Write the structure tokens for this entry.
Amino acid sequence: PLVTSKEMFKKAYEGKYAIGAFNVNNMEIIQGIVDAAKEEQAPLILQVSAGARKYAKHIYLMKLVEAAVEDSGLPICLHLDHGEDFEICKACIDGGFTSVMIDGSKLPFEENIALTKKVVDYAHERGVTVEGELGRLAGVEDAVKVSEREATYTDPDQAVEFVERTGVDSLAIAIGTSHGAYKFKGEPTLDFERLEKISKMLPGFPLVLHGASSVLPEFVAKCNQYGGKIQGAQGVPEEMLLKAGQMGVCKINIDTDLRLAMTASIREHLALHPGDFDPRQYLKPAREAIKNMVKHKIRNVLNCSGR
Ligand code: G3H
Ligand code: 13P
Ligand code: NA
Ligand code: ZN
């Protein structure tokens, strides 16, 4: 069935592992991810961004995910990624999602609380779980100075107040990750001291890490080998993600690594088989590449195989 994140997070917290939340945009991506989770018997969150809803349409993604649940027999949580206002959260709750994120992280603290609380009230009445966000992800890779870090990274005291006053089920925090393929200019670092503080002040409460792709060099290299131009890409080292998963982080968001795996595969196929033009010829290996990437994450990054 489609399930909320509630039970998954409780088990993940206690078992000191994390659940992968993978972004989905089409059938091949959904099938690749779900096949991997099924083979690994792993808990799974599929997440849909506003851009994905616009690209594929809500109803197509909804029906594809329902098909995945029925075909695989897996419990799957279907989550809205980065909902920016009440309306999109309401549309997803009314439209069958089991979890939503309201991302008020750009708003002043009190406005973020008010908006998040409004979504929580609506969602909880309907049995849907809610993720909030506090702290700023974008541009934090530049926050080398302590003063900038204090202004953008999640403040532990505020995190406690935010969770208490909004009633959110999970909280996305900023500790140095960022979205996309260019996360760090120099050595990758995350503020584990801050994570430890937040985690200790919110015992038993599930935290979420966005911007958690590792940007594996092998996949960037394959893109570039077959005509791509991706320069200076760098992600979060896998051992840091494993560590975060033992420190109260129950959900790890991954999109960029799926994009790189799929694009590398398609580029390679078309370069090696220039006569091919049946989309199934390159989408089948692309789907397989997604599956292999997700299996790798489940085993080596999330530690959630067989859970
Ligand atoms: O956080 C962003 C996710 O990677 C989704 O990206 O908004 O381009 O669909 P998108
Ligand atoms: P990446 O860009 O690191 O894959 O992060 C995805 C994400 O946080 C989606 O919400
Ligand atoms: Na999310
Ligand atoms: Zn995100």
Summary: Residues 6-302 form a domain with the TIM Barrel fold (CATH 3.20.20.70).
